[in-house]
Amino acid sequence: MAARILIASSVILVILAYLIWAPSVIAPSPEVAFVKKTISSHKIVIFSKSYCPYCKRAKSVFKELNQVPHVVELDQREDGSSIQDAISEIVGRRTVPQVFINRKHLGGSDDTVEAYQSGELAKLLGIDTEDADEF
């Protein structure tokens, strides 16, 4: 009898846990959906804040490569903080900038500059570095 009660209690707990957590797993928040759609819709995406010196540094790398990224300035959006939370959910970082190339997360400012200096960024973008300006 005690075993049946234990099994029934366990089943109820599993069902309750599913009902509580499943909606967030099944349907992402509107902000997560926005981030994912933005990343999938553009070759280069930078989630940025207009006043941030690290963001300016990352954006300047693409200018040197004669590339125009799609920039989302989080400080200029009412939902900017929620989008930043969504980015954190997706990549595990809440800092800006966060740079994506061809739907893949490159990283922040230091990662972007490092990829530029090593030539990896030009490879990811499929461009000839001779066409780029010097950084």
Automatic annotation (TrEMBL):
Q: Where is the Glutaredoxin domain?
A: 44-105
The record's annotation in InterPro entries points to: GLR_AS, Glutaredoxin, Glutaredoxin_euk/vir, Glutaredoxin_subgr, Thioredoxin-like_sf
Q: In the record, which residues are listed under signal peptide?
A: 1-27
What name does the UniProt record give this protein?
A: Glutaredoxin domain-containing protein
Q: Name one Pfam family in it.
A: Glutaredoxin
Task: Offer one example of a GO biological process linked to this entry.
Answer: cellular response to oxidative stress
Q: Which family does it belong to?
A: Belongs to the glutaredoxin family. CPYC subfamily.
Q: Which UniProt keywords apply?
A: Disulfide bond, Electron transport, Redox-active center, Signal, Transport
Q: Provide the taxonomic classification.
A: Eukaryota, Viridiplantae, Streptophyta, Embryophyta, Tracheophyta
Q: Which GO terms describe its cellular component?
A: cytoplasm
List, alphabetically, the Gene3D superfamilies matched: Glutaredoxin
SUPFAM superfamilies with a match to the protein in the record:
Thioredoxin-like
Query: Single GO molecular-function term?
Result: glutathione disulfide oxidoreductase activity
What is this protein's function?
A: Has a glutathione-disulfide oxidoreductase activity in the presence of NADPH and glutathione reductase. Reduces low molecular weight disulfides and proteins.
